[in-house]
Amino acid sequence: MSRLDTILPPLPPAGSIDEPNPTAEELAAGQVSDWPQALDANQALSDMSQPFALNAEEEQRFSWLGILAKNATFTAKTASTLWLCPVAEAEVLLQRWVDQQILIEKQWLQSSLSPFQHIYQLPALLQQVAYTGLLQLKQLEARDVHAALIERYQALTHKRLWHTLADDGYIHAHLTWHLQAADRCDEIHILLQEEAESGANGWYEACDRNGYTAFYCRDVNLGWQLAEEQYDQSPTQAIQLQCRYAMMTVAHHRLVTRLPAPLVGAFVRQQIWTPTQSITYLELIQDSHHQFEVLQDLIPALPTTYHPYILSVIQRQSNAAHQAQLLCLLAPLLETTLFPDLLKIIPSLSADFYKAIVLREISAQIPTPLLDQTVAIAQTLSPSDEMVAACGIVTRWPQTTSIYLNQLINSQTDEIEESVCSEFLVAIAPTISNAQKAQVLEVINSIEHSSTRATLLLHLLPNHPGLLSVTFRTVCSIEDERSCAFALSKIVPYLSEVEIQLTLNILEKFEDPLAYSSVLPPICKHHSAPNITAKLLKIINTLPAERDRGQALGTLFPHLSPSVQTEVKDQISAFTKLTAKVLSICQLANIDKSILPTALHWLSQCQDSNTQFRAYWTLSQYRPKLLPAALTAACQITDTDTQILAFQQLAPQLTHEQIQHVLGIAQQVPCKDKQQRMLNSVIPYCSRALLLNIQAHRKQHPSNQAYTSVLSTLKTQLTSSELKLSPWEARKRTLDSLNALLPNDLLAQTLAATFEFTDKADRAKSLSRLLPQIHPSQIDYSQWCKILRQLTALDYDAFLLNIPKLSPLMEYLAQPEILHCTVHNMQLIHQQW
To answer: What's the CA gap between 299 and 279, in Å, rounded?
Structure first.
């Protein structure tokens, strides 16, 4: 079963009016409602002859609605085609029937995307009445009535080509069902082969343009199924059609895999795609990691009515880390009623660690009535992982703090990791009472690392100021300079002047220049005495690198007196390194406007594009008029990775024209991975028009290397197969080919094991490796069908490279001319896709 079947049920048997419904759009949107209670079903059944009053013409028109697929939605344009009347006239009658409760008027989830003002549905009960009446009225068999509908629609096409048919909100989703019901299955194959004026596949282009990509995929699956069923009547035709549909499938997959995740999310947000289109593409993605990336971007973009579907997709993900991340991303957006379903997924995750992470992250959103269920899930975890989950639980429900604190205190040594213990104590710090303080301090004192002890004490300090002395001593004992500086920056507001002097003594001993950046601003903000400022400047001036000194002085500058600021400006002006001077002066210019001309002067002397960008970017934070200069500098950066980082900073503030310029640069990047990263940096900020341009650019044909190679191989096989071999040569070739083959029993076991692989891509790759070891006589038709379908999990080029391996099986199951058909199919698909 295709993953697409999860959103589109299989087609019904030919001749049935029970079209599989609701559609994916309706399933996701929750639009399928019961027939209004005003119409009593039993009463309608007991009086089928006249369930409502219609005149003769209206009765005839009503009966034509019976031929539509069960529960399908349609429009006045659909009715006008069936009734051979103007659309406006059909709309009036349909609206009257809505008022009379004969029809239901539906609302699409994104009505702004629908070209139709009104969308209708005929209740199943009344549809059966209409269908029966139509057959009696026309005195025809069901297939003939379906054929009549087909002819009425085909009269609206150009040169009887279905892809030229205008959208009416119904026929594109149900044409193949009507063709099958009319016993015109051959026309389904013709439909799926139509070519548009652009050279692309006509039916795909029509469906994709109108938002019916899901139905196109279902049509291809139907065509493939019909091809499999006709093997007994026409083996060659059956095999060549199956191969064509397999190539169409992987060609469409290629379109999907070439769409980056941010682009899919942006298409939904900008209403270029309907939600159902994005879901269709999601389901067609073969690579599990790419599907995960697309889901990450779709979750914030899809309407909340799609959340039940998203939960089902998350549940069937094979990677527990991906499942955990997706659940955490979905939870803040989830409606309260769906949290029980979310909690049911958590126990199925493959590792306690991921279960704990999810519980910790989503606890803030879990409704209070689900507290017991949440705690019960946490209790199934290991002691350390349960405490991870408790970090979220105690934040959401503080009344559970004492329970988990006692559990932590009574736990065995090494039973709970130090980092987990620390995280839990941070979570409960705001709510710890004086009675619990002694217990918490006992746990903190048992922790080995001073930086961890200091962090915990700092979280307790706001509510327990009596801990200042022990906290300060602990902070001062931290050996790692950056960790110590960070901890000092947090405790500085609580320190006396004496303690600040001790802090400065510690800073004097620092050797890492980056350690200063976090602690300098709070010291200047809370302790601005001249002696303290003077000592800070003295410490900074010991830094050997001008860039480090300039950054530290720039951090200190807003907190200095005017006279000291003048000294700092003179000091930076004396720098000998142009890069350090430019970046430092620009940093000062954001505080002192008088420095701007000097900053721009030195910036004009700098030739390094990266430095220019950093300087202009710094200045543009307070002077937006300089943003174009920052962009110009970013565009001239030669290192692609550095340029990508620059564009990521700039993107939120760029105009339409500026983003268009960045896209032009991205298209010139030779490395596809880096090109994609550059595109991803601006896609969230692209307009609808720019997104369409990106999509058009990505549809350009990729490398033809695999196609050319396989086509050449097949033509060589064709030439050799047409040569007449002597009996001796034929016998020798047969014996040579058997040397590398697997015995029948081993082949059967290998195939069975391969088919049991859970990952489709792994299954396909294994089959690909196995093909050269299979003799055609070892495979029956059902196995052929199964192998071919499994191989569509390969990417497009890999699938093409397997066609020569499949050709002996194809010739054995069909006729030698199958290779000619395969070459033709390859050329057709290559041209259309």
So the answer is: 11
CA distance linking residue 145 with residue 149, whole number of Å = 6
| Closest alpha carbon to 87 in 117, 129, 57, 56 | 117
Quick one: tokens of 116?
């139709």
Counting Cα atoms < 13 Å in the Cβ hemisphere of 770 gives 25
* DSSP run (H or E) holding 106: strand 104-106
CA distance 334 to 350: 23
pTM, two decimal places: 0.73
For 608-616, the CB contacts below 8 A with 24+ separation are 608/579, 609/633, 609/634, 609/636, 609/637, 609/638, 610/637, 610/639, 610/642, 610/646, 611/579, 611/582, 611/583, 612/636, 613/637, 613/646, 614/583, 615/582, 615/583, 615/586, 616/586
Q: Who has greater pLDDT, 253 or 474?
A: 474
> What is the radius of gyration, based on Cα positions, of the chain?
35
What is the model's pLDDT at position 735?
A: 40
**Is residue 482 classed exposed, middle or buried when 0-12, 13-18 and 19+ CB atoms within 10 A define those classes?**
middle
Grouping H, G, I as helix, E, B as strand and the rest as coil, residue 494 is helix
Q: How many CB atoms lie within 10 A of CB 678?
A: 24
Check if the beta carbon of residue 813 is closer than 8 Å to that of residue 228. Answer: no
Residue 719 has a pLDDT of: 63
Print the SS3 string covering 622-637. CCHHHHHHHHHHHHCC
pLDDT of residue 744: 75
Q: Nearest 10 degrees: CA dihedral of 311, 312, 317, 323?
A: 10
Helix (H, G, I), strand (E, B) or coil at 560: coil
Q: In whole angstroms, give the CA distance from residue 29 to residue 46.
A: 34
Task: Give residues with Cβ within 8 angstroms of 517, minimum separation 6.
Answer: 485, 551, 552, 555
Angstrom distance (rounded) from CA 196 to CA 406: 72
For the cut 80, the answer to whether the pLDDT of residue 89 exceeds it is yes
In this predicted model, what pLDDT tens digit does every residue of 487-508 receive, in sequence order? Answer: 999 999 999 989 999 999 999 8
Residues 494, 496, 499, 500: what is their CA dihedral angle, to the nearest 10 degrees?
Answer: 80
Collapse the DSSP code of 231 into the 3-class scheme (helix H, G, I; strand E, B; otherwise coil) and give the result. coil
Cα(494)–Cα(458) distance, integer angstroms: 10
d(CA 269, CA 118): 24
From the list 770, 773, 784, the residue with the least C-alpha distance to 818 is 784
pLDDT reading at 833 higher than 50? yes
Question: Which parts of 19-141 fold into alpha helices (H)?
Answer: 24-29, 41-46, 56-64, 76-83, 87-99, 124-138
Residue 22, preceding bond cis, omega within 30 degrees? yes
How far apart CA 275 and CA 302 sit, in angstroms, is 6
Alpha-helical (H) ranges within 230-370 are: 235-257, 261-269, 275-284, 288-298, 307-315, 320-330, 339-345, 352-362
Distance CA 268, CA 272 (A): 6
Q: Which residues pair with 119 in a beta bridge?
A: 106
Q: How far apart are CA 663 and CA 674, in angstroms?
A: 13
More confident residue, 211 or 291: 291
**Among 97-111, 189-203, 403-417, 800-814, the least confident range:** 97-111
High-pLDDT (> 90) share of the chain, %: 55
CA distance 621 to 627: 8
Q: What are phi and psi of 497, to 5 degrees?
A: -65, -35
C-beta of residue 300 within 8 angstroms of C-beta of residue 333: yes
